[in-house]
Amino acid sequence: MAEKNTRLKIFHAGYCTHPEHIILRNKNRKDIPFPAMFALIMHPQRGPMLFDTGYSERFFSETKRFPSSIYRRITPVHFSEKDAAAHQLQQYGVAAKDIQYVVISHFHADHIAALGDFPNAKYIYLAKAFDDVRNRKGISALIRAFLPGLIPRDFMERSITIDRKPPVELPLDYIPFRWGWDLCEDMSVIAVELPGHAVGQIGLFINTDVKTRYFLIADACWLQQSYQQNIMPHPITRLLFADYKEYRKTLEKIHQIYLERPQLHIIPSHCMKTVTQHEHNTQS
Ligand SMILES: [Zn+2]
């Protein structure tokens, strides 16, 4: 019998390290690991798609020279070939050439470094997210954590911007999120805007069956304690964020849905605890 449900599998491709106190405003100056999460979504009609890609070898070749070498120094990256998304997917039984879509949460290097490894995928994102970075080079790209060399040459031809269609009004159980884009036209994969961290950042609600809903929130916050307790990161992170006020509003919304929907699985891309837990629990 044909599989009817959408399935989800969580992975991560490499990680970087940062001191914990920057995120939780506590006294812990120790470096902790931040995984670069990516997700495989198996849709019964649309086929396999990804949410982000994590790091890749290309991150290293693109950060060899100044000024992008600064990026690598600020966030030391741990990655080996076997961590690559394409490699892990192959181990899992999904060939890179079969990936139909890559949904891009935002254009920071740790989310898009392997875009070029999926030769037949269409790229799905909010137009303004790419518009914000597409003409940036050098320092101007660096302050957006954007490495232009990670964008495949045929990127535009393979792009499908989400907002070419109007969003749909979401059912009440998504409140405070009111509008979203129904990517597979069956309400199984819904993109919502999560602005603040980066211009046009999106997250995905994924309904794998009537009872199970995931919310992939990308970099709307970095650790689960942040949305559980509504903790804003250290003000120094203002330098990284596109809009600090919007970031606060987005975090408050996630905090609210967390309080109202205890069954919802919220997954920040860089929370090692959450990502590892779901790497074990999700299957496809
Ligand atoms: Zn980011």
From TrEMBL:
Key words, A-Z: Hydrolase, Metal-binding, Zinc
Q: Which cofactor does it need?
A: Zn(2+)
Tell me which InterPro entries the record gives: MBL_superfamily_lactonases, Metallo-B-lactamas, RibonucZ/Hydroxyglut_hydro
Enumerate the SMART domains for this protein.
Lactamase_B
Query: What are the recorded GO MF terms, alphabetically?
Result: hydrolase activity; metal ion binding
Identify the residues that the record assigns to the Metallo-beta-lactamase domain, covering every copy.
35-270
UniProt cross-references to Pfam families, sorted A to Z: Lactamase_B
Q: Which CDD domains match?
A: metallo-hydrolase-like_MBL-fold (cd07730)
Would you identify the family this protein belongs to, as annotated? Belongs to the metallo-beta-lactamase superfamily.
What protein does this entry describe? MBL fold metallo-hydrolase
